[in-house]
Amino acid sequence: MGTSHRMDLYFVRHGITDWNKEKRYLGHTDRGILINELDQLTKLKDELQKISFDQIFTSDLCRCQETLTYLNLSLPAYVDTRLREMNFGDWEGKTYEELKHIASYQNWLDNWEHYSTPNGESGESFKARINSFFDELFQQLLENTANYNKQILIMTHGGVIRYFVSKMVSSHTFWEVTVKHGQGIRLSLDWVKGEWVCNSLSEVPFQGKEKS
């Protein structure tokens, strides 16, 4: 029998912060989650504690670390700075209303992959570091010759989730991918003819139906 490589990737967006509530751009600025909003994570916590994860990875920023602590999963997490949100540079802490009249901001909204945030991070740089993380993770999995179905949790940020889902699921563009704070998305992947293929996309906590 041939080797079967499969995995479920659970992407979880951190709990909400003060800047998130105020709709401010929050990239590398290290804001903690709001304690009085933790009850919004209860359903997610109950769902994830039922799953036996093989590995957990998290961004190093405190909003991700604090969310993971609240979820109280039994497995220790690997911290990786490549899972950070995009660095928005001069736009950190700004709102759409404050930026909407700036031409460079509108250009970035229209084509974020080819424009840089001022004194921040370019789309190409952002994609490269996310790709680096997943290339390394996937290579490690492929080096394991046993048949398996891995369960992997990734605690990260909205932009990271948007990018990776839109990369793996061609029917979803970057801006179309939505995941609320304290919610997640499960991608089920199979290794088929030399590449990872997404065979299902589901919301977490599960809503009883698949998104594609």
Automatic annotation (TrEMBL):
One of its GO terms (molecular function) is fructose-2,6-bisphosphate 2-phosphatase activity. This is Histidine phosphatase family protein. SMART domains: PGAM. The active site is at 14 (tele-phosphohistidine intermediate), 85 (proton donor/acceptor). The lineage of its organism: Bacteria, Bacillati, Bacillota, Bacilli, Bacillales. Substrate binds at residues 13-20, 63. It comes from Halalkalibacter alkaliphilus. Keywords: Hydrolase. It comes from the Bacteria. One of its GO terms (cellular component) is cytosol. GO terms for biological process: negative regulation of glycolytic process; regulation of pentose-phosphate shunt.
